[in-house]
Amino acid sequence: MAEINIELRKNGSMKLPGPLVLVDENGEEKIIDKAAVSFCRCGGSKDKPFCDGTHKEIGFEGPSFTVKLKTTE
């Protein structure tokens, strides 16, 4: 059984392990071929859904925790 960790960083982004496939609202798929991908939690990124560091500038506050997904792969 494999485990996938999704990390919500204190006052920052949501980090997922990559590579991954991002599917938009139209069903279009985009392959993100990186070891990790950070998604915006503050709502201020100019590169949504990805984090661009804006959370630091606007003083975003959010808790830190990890979501552990267990897969059968």
Commentary on this structure:
By secondary structure, this protein is mainly β. The protein has one helix and six strands; from the N terminus they run βββββαβ. Strands 5-2-1-6 form a four-stranded antiparallel beta sheet, with no helix packed on it. A two-stranded antiparallel sheet has the order 3-4. The longest helix has 5 residues, at about 55-60. The protein is flat. The mean pLDDT is about 95.
- How helical, in percent, are the residues? under 10%
Distance between the termini: 6 Å
Low-confidence stretches: none
Count of helical regions: 1
Helical/strand content category: mainly beta
Strand order of the largest sheet: 5-2-1-6
